[in-house]
Design goal:
With about 550 residues, the chain is of the alpha+beta class. About 50% of the residues lie in helices and about 15% in strands. α4 runs antiparallel to α6, α6 packs antiparallel against α7 and α6 runs antiparallel to α8. The radius of gyration is 38 Å and the shape is elongated.
Length: about 550
């Protein structure tokens, strides 16, 4: 009787085990299109055998676990790859916008506007007294100025849009981090019960990948199955069931754009902006704070050089006269040097900067430092410094003075002769007759000496542009933009291919195959039927024995 009883038990366990196999297979089929779902599999073990003569007899089957079919190395590669993909995708998109600013399609490019200006200058040189030619020249100058202002405005809009996107990314990361913390707690409870939290683990991995796409992270998993997520040089964004957050704080030293701080679960803040090196957040910060400002600086440098070269010739004392014999003035709106104190300054001083000698301008950037009672002006490009002393000082064409307040020792000011020139680019002349084409005040109609000098600026090697002409410098500038854009696009293409390859590898291991699952259904169904047959057979044997006793 013991043998028949064991057959009943073996059949019963086989029914339960294969039924569970069918349930897991059904779950796989149901989630074949669920993003992030990992195929599950049933692990079967034999139960403890019975020791009988002449040998041990099996007692059936049991399910040891229902596990996720996953390759942890591939999963980690996908997670880290999401950061690179997020960075390159965002960077490429923003650089495409930058490149479109300089597109010459349809004849609207800045390069064409520069060429048109010098063509108009040549026309006036050919007919200095021709008012229509002078009018066209003013229009060409206005068009160029507007093109420059428009380009600067578009640059600023890209920075503004990137900053808004930063805020959106922070909201996403904080939401995902909170959800991961909640899942951590639920996963711990399931693990402590001796079960595998398969579906919860899938949900958490999807969230971790989403965070990684936005910011570079490091993760570790503890003995309870909880994942700790680190950002910004070891700051625990998620630890157990607790989640910190990323917050934005406007920085006066960064044009009011947001720096990123980590807020721990106890409320303390740490600036981690410089520690963010990957993910879409990294690209937004880099394009906003480095790449676009670099392009804007080149545009300012070009604009300031154009303004300085033109105004020097057009207002040269004794050699520049308009159609009425009046001394010429500025052709473009004059340069407006800037001085900005750092937010860390402890004094109340505000510096004023003016152009003292246009011909001596380098159009470089400077730093003014107060040590004790002495100010030192340092050229940040060449490293040249003024002799320490009091203000006002004149250095490389700039006159620097205290405009208001009282600076304190240790205060630092950033000075530039070209910053924001593109933003305020304008034509100073409104009357075509005021164009100073002549080198003489006698009013000789055919005198075009000064106009030839203005037209000759097109081919002048300008020291502030590293010895390039205006258009050569502009061409290099546009080429730099194009090179960076193409480099980003190529890197994105490579990263996309790698990402696809990794996801295909994951799909082969962890993805649901309908063919395989249909095979499993048949396998478990047939095993279930066989187990039922075992029970039926055992019952028939049992009934036979009972009949013998009658």
């Amino acid at each position: 009787m013991a043998g028949i009883s064991n057959m009943f038990n073996v059949g019963r366990l086989a029914l339960f085990a294969n039924q569970k196999g069918l349930e897991v297979t059904s779950q796989n089929i149901a989630n074949i299109n669920t993003p992030g779902y990992t195929r599950q599999a049933v692990s079967f073990n034999t139960t403890t055998p019975l020791s009988t003569a002449p040998g041990q007899t099996g007692t059936g089957v049991e399910i040891s676990e229902i596990r996720r079919v996953v390759n942890r190395f591939i999963e980690s590669q996908i997670t880290s790859g999401e950061s690179s993909f997020g960075r390159l995708e965002t960077e490429s998109g923003l650089l495409n916008r930058v490149e479109s600013i300089f597109s010459a399609a349809g004849g609207s490019g800045l390069n064409l506007a520069i060429s048109d200006l010098f063509s108009a200058l040549q026309d006036v040189s050919n007919a200095p007294a021709d008012r229509p030619a002078r009018t066209v020249l003013l229009e060409r100058a206005k068009q160029l100025s507007q093109q420059i202002v428009t380009a600067d405005t578009q640059f600023r809009q890209i920075r503004t849009d990137a900053n808004k996107a930063v805020l959106g990314v922070l909201n996403d990361v904080n939401l995902f981090a909170s959800q991961v913390a909640t899942l951590n707690d639920r996963i711990k409870v399931v693990n402590l019960s001796g079960q595998n939290a398969n579906d919860l683990l899938d949900q958490r991995q999807v969230l971790i990948n989403k965070i990684s796409e936005r910011i570079d992270i490091q993760t570790i998993e503890d003995s309870f199955g909880q994942t700790t997520i680190f950002v910004g040089n070891g700051k625990a964004l998620v630890e157990g069931k607790n989640a910190g957050s990323l917050v934005a704080a406007a920085s006066a030293d960064n044009d009011g754009f947001s720096n990123i701080s980590f807020r721990s679960s106890n409320g303390s803040l740490t600036d981690i902006t410089s520690a963010i090196s990957n993910g879409s957040l990294s690209a937004l910060i880099d394009v906003r704070d480095n790449k676009v400002p670099g392009f804007m600086d080149q545009l300012d440098q070009l604009s300031a050089s154009l303004v300085n070269e033109f105004n020097q010739v057009h207002s040269a004392t004794g050699t520049a006269f308009d159609l009425n014999g009046i001394q010429g003035g500025n052709f473009f709106g004059p340069l407006a040097p800037t001085a900005r104190g750092l937010t860390a300054n402890t004094g109340s001083g505000v510096l004023g900067v003016t152009v003292a000698t246009p011909s001596a301008l380098t159009l470089d950037k400077y730093r003014v430092t107060l040590s004790g009672t002495n100010y030192t002006v340092t050229n940040l490009t060449t490293g040249a410094s003024s002799t320490p002393g009091t203000l006002p000082q004149t250095f490389e064409g700039l006159s620097i003075s205290i405009s208001s307040g009282t600076p304190a020792s240790g205060d630092v000011f950033n000075v530039s002769a070209h910053l924001n020139t593109a933003r305020s680019m304008s034509v100073a002349i409104t009357d075509p007759d005021s164009i100073a084409a002549s080198s003489s005040a006698t009013g000789v109609p055919g005198n075009n000496v000064n106009m030839n000098l203005l037209a000759g600026i097109q081919n002048n090697a300008i020291s502030a542009l590293n010895g390039d002409t205006l258009q050569t410098y502009y061409g290099g500038f546009v080429g730099d933009v194009g090179t960076q854009t193409q480099s980003s696009q190529r890197a994105l293409s490579v990263e996309t291919d790698m990402r696809t390859q990794l996801k295909n590898m994951r799909q082969e291991i962890s993805g649901v195959s309908m063919d395989e699952e249909m095979t499993n259904i048949i396998k478990f169904q047939r095993a279930y039927e066989a187990a039922a047959t075992v029970i039926t057979t055992a019952d028939e044997m049992f009934q036979t024995i009972l009949a013998l006793r009658r």
